[in-house]
Amino acid sequence: MFDDPPVEDLFSASGALDAIAELEKNTNAAILAQRASERLEVRTKVWVKPANASQRHQFSIEGVTADISTGGCMMLLPRPIFPGDIFWLSFMEAELGLGSIFARCLRCRFVREEIYEAGFRFLSNVNLTSAVQAHTMLPN
User: Fold this and answer.
1) What is the mean pLDDT of residues 10-21?
2) What's the whole-model pTM score?
3) 3-class secondary structure for 68-112?
4) Of 38, 56, 35, 37, nearest to 47 (Cα)?
5) Given CB 3.0 to 4.6 Å as the disulfide criterion, which of 14, 67, 91, 127 pairs with 39?
6) Percentage of residues in the chain with pLDDT exceeding 90?
């Protein structure tokens, strides 16, 4: 009943070979090419929580964005998170009109004690122009 499956079945069932091939493509040049889209340097508070609604109360990490694009963002966090996990990002509404959005963590690296750089890809693109304009317009 609980016999180990043959190794061949593990590779075909989990797509492990595809995952290994994808990891091999993660060179510095490939990462820079992924980040080639137009980015805005925006410093705003963001809260990182688990994507599952039933787990959102378990933890919340407050960070600050370094840059943002229509497809993702880079931020600094006080503790590491797991690449591959999906999170619920809540941006400070008074500073950036994005509200909350689902995003997958693509990378997380140690910068120095209690500072980690994390890169996220939004699960759906955002209209960054209107989000920024809505919060940079001065009252008449």
Assistant:
1) 60
2) 0.68
3) ECCCEEEEEECCCCCCCCEEEEEECCCCCCCCEEEEEEEEEEEEE
4) 56
5) 67
6) 42
